[in-house]
Amino acid sequence: MTNAIQAGTVHYPAADGAEIEAYLAVPQDDAPRGGVVLIHHLPGYDEATREFARTFAVHGYNAVVPNLYSREGGPGIAPEDAAAAVRAEGGVPDERLIADVGTAAAYLRGLDTANGKVGVIGHCSGGRQAVLVACAGLDLQAAVNNYGAFVMLDSPEGSGMRATSLESRLPELSCPLLGNFGADDKFPTPEQTAQLAAALDKLGKPYDFKTYEGAGHAFFNVNRVSYRPEAAMDAWDRIFEFYGTHLS
User: What does each C-alpha distance from 110 to 99, 104, 181 come to in angstroms?
Assistant: First the structure.
C-alpha cells in the first residue's frame, strides 16, 4: 500500500469521437501495475465511485472512472441534469457501455506504468455492466460484480432501468468473475444469484460468489443506512486478493 497517489480529471476520445471525461487515480511510483476500470452506478459519476478509484490507487493499481454520461453533459449542463437525462432513458445502452469500457481499458494500457492487465468492477447497475463487458469480447483479465441485478432476468417495469438478461451472453464470459451480494437484497435476490452460479457451473466458467447475511443492497456505501462495515471490509479483502491473482 502507498499513500502517495495522484488523482484528477482526464479527458480522452471515445470510439465514436465523443470526448469522455474520466477520473484517474494512480500511485506515484514507476512500478508496472495492473489497471482497474470502475463502472459507476445509475445515479451517476459520483464522489463515492471516485473514492473507490483512490482506494485502488492506494493499493497499487491504476484506476479510472469514465463518466458514462459525458455525452449528455458538457459546458453549462449540471452533472445531476446529465444523470437525470440518462436515468430517464433507463440507463446507458449496452453497446455504448461496452465501447466506453473498452476505450477506458485501452487508456489504462497506454499509461507508462501499465503491465497490460486490466480488470473491471461495478456496483449495482455497474455490477451488471461488469458482467456485460466481461462477456463482450474485451481484453479483460478479471471482473467484479457487486450486487448487480438483472443478469439472469430482464428489469421489471417501474425499476427505473431498461436492462435485458445477460444469460444468453454468458457462454462468452472471457475472464474470472468475482461476486459480492447481500442476503437481504431484492435486486438481485439470493435465488437470482444462485441461478447465475448454476449457469456458470454448467458452462464451466470460473467464478467466486459470496452472499453476506444481514446485508442488503448497497452495503458498500458508507453514506447510506444500508452500509454494513463487516461485509464491506470482507468484500474489499476478496477484491484485492482476486485482483492480486489476476492483475499482477
Answer: 17, 10, 33
Q: Express the helix, strand and coil content of the chain in percent, nearest 5 each.
A: 35, 25, 40
Instruction: Annotate 36-90 with three-state secondary structure.
Output: EEEECCCCCCCHHHHHHHHHHHHCCCEEEEECCCHHHCCCCCCHHHHHHHHHHCC
Cβ within 8 Å of residue 227, ≥6 positions away: 218, 219, 220, 221
Give the H or E element holding residue 122: strand 114-123
Nearest 5°: the CA angle 39, 48, 239 is 60
Please write the tens of the pLDDT for every residue from 236-247: 999 999 999 999
The pTM for the full model equals 0.96
CB 37 within 8 A of CB 118: yes
Q: Are 69 and 80 in contact (CB under 8 A)?
A: no
**Residue 30, C-alpha cell as written in the block:** 514507476
Q: Are the C-beta atoms of 72 and 92 separated by less than 8 Å?
A: no
Q: pLDDT tens across 131-153, in order?
A: 999 999 999 999 999 999 999 99
- Work out the average pLDDT over 109-125: 98
Are 136 and 172 within 8 A, CB to CB?
A: yes
* Beta carbons of 206 and 242 less than 8 angstroms apart: no
Which CA distances in Å does 59 have to 53, 84, 161, 187? 10, 33, 33, 30
Cα separation, 245 vs 20, whole angstroms: 30
